[in-house]
Amino acid sequence: MSGVIIVSGTDTGIGKTVAAAGLAAALGAHYWKPIQAGTEDGTDTERAAALGARALPEAYRLALPASPHLAAEREGLVLDPERLALPAERPLVVEGAGGLMVPIRRDPPWLMIDQFAHWGAPVLLVARTELGTINHSLLSIEALRARGIAIAGLLFVGAAHGDNDAVVPALSGVRNLGRLPLLDPLDAGALAQAMAGIDLAAIREAMAA
Question: Which of 8, 39, 84, 139 has its CA at a distance of 20 to 30 angstroms from the CA of residue 100?
Answer without folding.
Answer: 39
